[in-house]
Amino acid sequence: MSDEQWQQHKVNSGRIQLGGGNGMAFQEQTTPESSSETPDCQTRMNSLKYILSKKQKTLLSARGHWSMWPAFPSGQTVLRNHKPCCAPEERRSSNKQALLTFPKPRYLEELESYLRKELQSLDLTKKNSQELKLQPYREIFEFFTDNFKTCKPLLSAIKNEYEVTLAHQRKTIRALEPLKAMVTTVSEDCTRQILALQEKEKDEINMLKQEKQNLLTFIDNMKEENNSLQTQVEHLQTSVAEEYARYFNEYGARKLLLAKLNDMHNERLDTTRHQVQDIKDEDVVKLTLALKIARQDLTRAQVKLNTVIAGYGDVVPRRDFKLLEKKFSDLLQEMKTLQKDFDQLHKEYETLLEIHRETAEERDNFCAELQRVQHNCTPRPNWEKCSEVIPGGADRWGCLAEGKTSDQLVHVLLEEIGTAALKETNVFPGWGKGDKVPVYLRHEGEVKNKKLTKKDVVNILKDVWKEKIALEQQTGKRSSLPEFFLSYLQEKYGDAAAMEWSYTLYENMRLCRSNHVLSSFYDMLTGKVGEEQYHGQNQLISNLQKELAACDSSNSGSLTSKQFSMAVREAFPLKREESIQELVDASRYKLDSTEDLIDYISLFKEDEEGNAEPFVAKLRSQYVREKHEYLRQLKNKLGDLREVNADDLKTAFCTIDPNIDDQTLDTYIGLAYQVQREQPDQEVVPVETALERLLAGDVRRVGPSPREGSTTDFEGE
Predict the structure, then answer these.
(1) Distance, CA of 688 to CA of 448 (rounded, Å)
(2) Mean pLDDT in residue range 533-555
(3) Distance CA 25, CA 56 (A)
(4) How far apart are CA 177 and CA 160, in angstroms?
(5) In the prediction, which pLDDT does 309 show?
(6) Cβ burial, residue 101 (10 Å; 0-12/13-18/19+)
């Protein structure tokens, strides 16, 4: 509520009515202590000071003494006309003083009445009703502060501290309101995306089921059609047999008819001969000539008839033959087509049967595996219960648990519990001063907890790296990280407080494993990972930034997807195509599907806690994955060896990486054997030990692989 609004409210609600009587009398404040009031309190009291000053002077002159109620018990008495400022000789004798009981001051009653009226006049239905309700209490508190001169500095300090705290809390609430709205919006978007994906998968499953049903129906139809064609072929075979029998019968009938015709011809010749003999009066020469000619004609006709019968005795008419031939060719072509379709369907049917058999086996295996897992494993916990105990409630837990597996959620929960317990811890027990204790933790007794935030820890660790790199560039030699860490803290915070900072930083790094800056520094500080890996990853990121900047000819800070992909290939020529696509997809996680420009500068930014963008996280994960793959190939090349010497290890490296140079090879051999001498080939170490040492360092492929191997991770991961 602003000062102008409060002044207007004061005008409308009326002013405080102060009266005489037994109430407390106040004097006008003219001492320098009034300067301790806050500016906003002075502004709000300007409209009332003049009236209060008059009232206070009148009351002081009328009463003649100060009332300290309720400083005395109700049964204690005070002098009626005692004035604290009069001389001792002017005081009356004790036998003339009347003893009076001390009632509640009238001024206090008027203040309480004023407070009740102010509260009743407020409209508590408004949004800022609590601030309106607080204002009368502030005014009452200011009345006490102005008139109790002895306690005024303390009361003013208390009031100012409360005002500062309230202002800080309002500022914090205003800053968190947009974040709350953003978290709600993100949660709703994620819920909608999950529902959309589920709906999409449901539609795809239904479509596949429908397609399977259609294929089964199509197979049944083809089976029915095949049976129908087989029936037609059988019917045609029966028809051809019937036609053959009919033609064979006709052939026999024709032969019988021919024999009958010959008999009839012979009978006619005999009849003619008898007739010629009977005709004796005819000319013998003429008859003989006629007979000769008739016999010649008969012979020619007989020969022609025999030829026709012999040549065309079993021949059908051409028209019927053409029709039957055409019908046969059509049926033959149709049968061939159906046979091909049947063979194709038969192959598809066999394929579907095989797929069905494999699917059934896979289903049975999955069912058996599910039963075994359900029998051996504990039920999946209800992670939503964690939102009841995690600071921030369900919204913050939803952000922390999004996209994480159960194992990752356990790490998140342990980190939250450990961080909360760390904030409650005031001191750490010292580890002692033994030789096995790290140099930066050698201390006996308790150590104070500095209670740093994650942002402070990240800034300190980044500054440690910066100072260490600068020192190594200046001196030209590598220093030990634990010793430099302790010397850095001693130089910056002093020898006395160095252990307090060291223990606080160590505990924060040990608990916050999800933060890359803290976890990587912890692994290198404890010796799990070599510093070369940190510098190697930074070198990869630096090379990529240079390539992207080189492709950006206009210095606009943005590249198209094609330009970005080409720059990544130039920076990482040994990466596979799927890895390049993963980096391109990670760079477009904030872009819409229609946008093509990628702001490559923002991909390398970090938040205040040192968390990198998804693109840099993907780049680091690919670095680890490629190193595991490289070492897996090295282990496969070593075969069943349990121990390996330097020569065998060099041969294995040269086999899986033919382009490796001698300097890099010597570096890898020295890293595996952790020795620096001229003849390391005399030493033999276990294969697992050598692989673990190589895994902790900066080991990566120098040239292209001679063959593409499996992408399974190294078993030591």
Answers:
(1) 41
(2) 87
(3) 6
(4) 26
(5) 81
(6) exposed
Q: Which two tokens stand for residue 564?
A: 């970005």
Sole residue written with tokens 């620096």: 676
Nearest to 10 by CA among 114, 158, 95: 114
Strand (E) or helix (H) holding 138: helix 129-147
Q: What is the pLDDT of residue 348?
A: 93
- Which residues, in sequence order, are bridge partners of residue 643? 686
**Is the distance from CB of 716 to CB of 631 less than 8 angstroms?**
yes
548, two tokens: 């992207």
Contact 80, 99 (CB under 8 A): no
Tokens of 665: 């090879």
Ramachandran region, residue 610 (left: φ > 0; alpha: ψ -120 to 50; beta: rest)? left
For 241-290, the DSSP string reads HHHHHHHHHHHHHHHHHHHHHHHHHHHHHHHHHHHHHH--SS-HHHHHHH
- Given pLDDT bands bounded at 50, 70 and 90, which one contains residue 534? confident
Tokens of 603: 């991909």
Per residue in 218-257, pLDDT (tens digit) is 999 999 999 999 999 998 999 898 988 888 888 888 888 8
State yes or no: pLDDT of 699 exceeds 90: no
d(CA 163, CA 158): 9
- Cα 44 to Cα 1, 123, 138, 142, distances in angstroms: 11, 20, 10, 10
Tokens of 465: 């790296």
Which residue has 């494999």 as its token pair?
Answer: 358
Structure tokens at 457: 């820890």
Tell me, what's the pLDDT at 281? Answer: 52
Q: Produce one character per residue of 605-633: b if its CB has 16 or more CB atoms within 10 Å, e if not.
A: eeeebbebbebbebbbebbeebbbbbbbb
Residue 245: HSE in the Cβ half-sphere, 13 Å Cα cutoff: 6
105: cis peptide before it, omega within 30°? no
Residues in the chain, total = 717
Q: Is 489 helix (H, G, I), strand (E, B) or coil?
A: helix
- Tell me the CA distances in angstroms from 592 to 120, 302, 595, one per residue in order: 56, 102, 5
Cα angle 641, 645, 649 (rounded to 5 degrees) comes to 80
Cα 465 to Cα 451: distance, rounded to the nearest angstrom: 22
- Amino acid code (one letter) for 112: E
pLDDT above 80 (res 460): yes
Count CB neighbours of 467 within 10 A: 15
* Cβ neighbours for 632, distance < 8 A, ≥ 6 positions apart: 709, 710, 712, 713, 714, 715
Residue 417 confidence (pLDDT): 80
DSSP 612: B
